[in-house]
TrEMBL record:
Keywords: Isomerase. Gene3D superfamilies: 2-enoyl-CoA Hydratase, Chain A, domain 1, Lyase 2-enoyl-coa Hydratase, Chain A, domain 2. It holds the Pfam family ECH_1. PANTHER family: ENOYL-COA HYDRATASE, POLYKETIDE BIOSYNTHESIS ENOYL-COA HYDRATASE PKSH-RELATED. This is Enoyl-CoA hydratase/isomerase. Belongs to the enoyl-CoA hydratase/isomerase family. The keyword Endoplasmic reticulum does not apply. Signal peptide: none annotated. GO terms for molecular function: isomerase activity. The keyword Isomerase applies. GO terms for biological process: isoprenoid catabolic process. It comes from Marinobacter nauticus (strain ATCC 700491 / DSM 11845 / VT8) (Marinobacter aquaeolei).
Amino acid sequence: MEQLPQCETLILEKQGPTLVITINRPDVRNAMSLQMVAELSTIFSEIENDISIRAAVLRGAGGHFCAGGDIKDMAGARSQKAGEGRDDPFYKLNRAFGQMIQQVNESSKVVIAITEGAVMGGGFGLACVSDLAIAGPTAKFGMPETTLGVIPAQIAPFVVERIGLTQARRLALLGLRIDATEACKLGIVHQVAESEEQLSDMLNQALERVRLCAPDATAETKALLHRVGHEAMAGLLDDAAEKFAAAIRGPEGAEGTMAFMQKREPKWAELPNQ
């Protein structure tokens, strides 16, 4: 990515092989507008085949990650002429978010979510599609949709994949809000920081691990993990063995083996983190 695109709802900062994406609507606790959805989708499309980007860090400005959907967009959809089925403005609004969150979920990059303050609704969904989620001490998580008379239509499947059906049912059907400690116990986040300094340290340690892992092997591994449970195991393992053979005979496999033998870091680890 030679030049970062201009965004109205996001702040983009490239730090070596890492793209930091900061949701920047602090006046509404980073509520997710249609424009933000479109901009996130554009960014993840652009970095997908960008070999200079190894990780994408998602975080929010002003002490909050994302408080959910934007009420103004909801009001705008309500003011439009009602349509039938997929012509309904509310369908289009909701489904656009689902397409974006699926795109983030399936990104070949390592996606890291830094969650602070409000992590609700769509923000909760984004946390659930990250490869690594780290929570700050102020983070509060929830699926409040049922308390508002609506349903978590696009995030629910990803929440189930993240924490299992029984816990997803408890959170969604009771509209619960939980703290970072419980979120970690449930597997929504992987680590909880007790301070901003510790949060920064945890992120830097994670990015250091990303640096040491081969980018193509990482992408292939992530794609393989996403297939588990959706395909017959025998066929999946057959295909995985083919990919293993291709990897070990490929440039990364050769370099990784040579680096191990020579007791040095592989060449892909030479990319700076800053």
